[in-house]
């Protein structure tokens, strides 16, 4: 398991991987740090706003989005 404690450590790891496109970089960051707590939502499905991977399904399953910020949502938290 890779532990990253600072932004400087993250940037060093990304630099060591060399040049990559934005989508690949975002996927790598999520792999290293975990998915963002900023998410997109569409029809009950929640996706990481950084890499686009599905992280929750409130339509066909149980997903608690109370601890995330949903892009475009109009509540006091978001």
Q: Strands of the largest sheet, in order across it?
A: 3-2-1-4
Order of helices and strands: HHEEEE
Task: Give the number of DSSP strands.
Answer: 4
Provide the gyration radius in Å. 14 Å
What does this structure look like?
The structure is a single chain. The mean pLDDT is 86. 29% of the residues lie in helices and 19% in strands. It starts with 6 loop residues before the first helix and ends in an 8-residue tail after the last strand. It has 2 domains: 1-34, no CATH class; 38-70, no CATH class. It has helices at 7-17, 22-33; strands spanning 38-42, 45-48, 54-57, 69-70. The longest helix has 12 residues, at 22-33. The radius of gyration is 14 Å and the shape is elongated. The protein has a 4-stranded mixed β-sheet with strand order 3-2-1-4, with no helix packed on it.
Brief characterization of the structure:
The longest helix is centred in the middle third of the chain and has 12 residues.
Using brief descriptors, characterize the structure shown:
78 residues; elongated; alpha+beta; 2 domains; four-stranded mixed beta sheet
């Amino acid at each position: 398991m890779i532990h990253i404690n600072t932004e400087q450590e993250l940037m060093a790891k990304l630099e060591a991987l060399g040049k990559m496109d934005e989508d690949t970089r975002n996927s790598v960051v999520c792999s290293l740090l975990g998915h963002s707590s900023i998410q997109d939502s569409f029809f009950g499905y929640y996706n990481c706003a950084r890499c686009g991977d599905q992280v929750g399904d409130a339509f066909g399953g149980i997903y608690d989005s109370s601890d995330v910020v949903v892009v475009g949502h109009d509540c006091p938290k978001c």
